[in-house]
């Protein structure tokens, strides 16, 4: 039987959304500003956007770029972070470069990348890649660095090569920390995706948003913000379910129900 506290935790996000929409509706009616439509007007615009074939193609193009940029970043960043965590030489080589790139907003790199590669999908995917890479590298590095040396000594004693120890010992032990970085990277992938599409305006959800802003279609602007927010919530929820399954062994097991009714 589900406890009242568990039901309250599940219902809390829904009530928070309802409360936010109510505040939005009241504020919009009070301000009476054309650039700030009511929540109802924005919600009514959502079916029009999702029902429009061109808009749907643009949104799917955004998701494709995001998936490619995120996937490549994860494939590159996890091995690099693990190597940095276990090798001082690798860490000493890459750390200065990462420290230079880290504080720079990735959107600020867009003009330079556009000069090199144009305004196509490669440019936007590269910006997403850069946004995702740093948190994944950092958390992979921290996870690898935290692995106990005695585990690696045991692996060496059993005849495992350095690569085998990295794959069979370091990677599983660092997985919870790695997935934390991937979750952060997923959020940044969505942010950099929209930002890059608003700067290099050819296609995508960011392009829809900016075009609507140019034409004064403010209900569409806010509707797109809702759609992008919903995309982020759904992606995060799916990723959290996957993460929970992959690292179930690392979760504390003491929160068992006290009632068997």
Write the SSE topology.
Layout: H1 4-31, H2 39-51, H3 53-86, H4 88-101, H5 110-117, H6 121-145, H7 149-157, H8 162-199, H9 205-214, H10 218-246
Helix pairs in contact: 2-10, 3-4, 3-6, 3-8, 3-9, 5-6, 6-8, 7-8, 8-9, 8-10, 9-10
GO cellular component, one term: plasma membrane
Transmembrane segments: 12-31, 66-85, 97-119, 220-239
InterPro entries: MetI-like (IPR000515), MetI-like_sf (IPR035906)
Structural description of this entry:
It is a multi-pass membrane protein. InterPro entries: MetI-like, MetI-like_sf. It comes from Bradyrhizobium cytisi. This protein is mainly α and 261 residues long. It has a single domain, classed as MetI-like fold (Orthogonal Bundle), CATH 1.10.3720. The chain is 80% helix and 0% strand. The chain contains ten helices and no strands. Helix 5 packs across helix 6, helix 7 packs across helix 8 and helix 9 runs antiparallel to helix 10. The longest helix has 38 residues. It is globular.
Feature tags:
mainly alpha; globular; about 260 residues; about 0% strand; about 80% helix
Structural class: mainly alpha
How many helices in DSSP terms? Answer: 10
Q: What's the average pLDDT?
A: 87
CATH class: Mainly Alpha
Largest sheet: none
Distance between the termini: 7 Å
CATH superfamily: MetI-like
Low-confidence stretches: 252-261
Family: Belongs to the binding-protein-dependent transport system permease family.
Keywords: Cell membrane, Membrane, Transmembrane, Transmembrane helix, Transport
Protein name: ABC transporter permease
Transmembrane segments: 12-31, 66-85, 97-119, 220-239
């Amino acid at each position: 039987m589900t406890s009242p506290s568990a039901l309250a935790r599940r219902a809390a996000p829904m009530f928070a959304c309802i409360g936010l929409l109510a505040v939005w509706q009241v504020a919009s009616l009070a301000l009476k500003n054309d650039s700030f439509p009511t929540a109802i007007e924005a919600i009514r615009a959502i079916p029009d956007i999702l029902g429009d074939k061109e808009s749907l193609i643009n949104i799917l193009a955004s998701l494709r770029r995001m998936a490619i940029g995120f996937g490549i970043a994860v494939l590159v960043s996890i091995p690099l972070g693990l190597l940095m965590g276990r090798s001082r030489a690798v860490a000493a080589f890459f750390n200065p470069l990462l420290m230079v790139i880290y504080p720079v907003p990735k959107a600020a790199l867009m003009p330079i990348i556009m000069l090199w590669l144009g305004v196509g999908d490669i440019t936007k995917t590269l910006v997403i890649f850069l946004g995702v890479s740093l948190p994944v590298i950092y958390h992979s590095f921290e996870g690898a660095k935290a692995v106990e040396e005695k585990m690696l000594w045991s692996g060496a004693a059993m005849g495992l090569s350095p690569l085998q120890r990295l794959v069979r010992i370091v990677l599983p032990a660092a997985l919870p920390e790695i997935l934390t970085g991937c979750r952060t990277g997923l959020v940044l992938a969505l942010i950099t995706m929209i930002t890059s599409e608003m700067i290099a305006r050819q296609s995508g959800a960011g392009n829809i948003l900016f075009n609507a802003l140019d034409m004064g279609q403010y209900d569409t602007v806010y509707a797109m913000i809702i759609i992008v927010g919903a995309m982020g919530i759904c992606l995060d929820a799916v990723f959290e379910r996957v993460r929970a399954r992959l690292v179930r062994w690392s979760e504390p097991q003491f929160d068992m129900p006290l009632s068997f009714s």
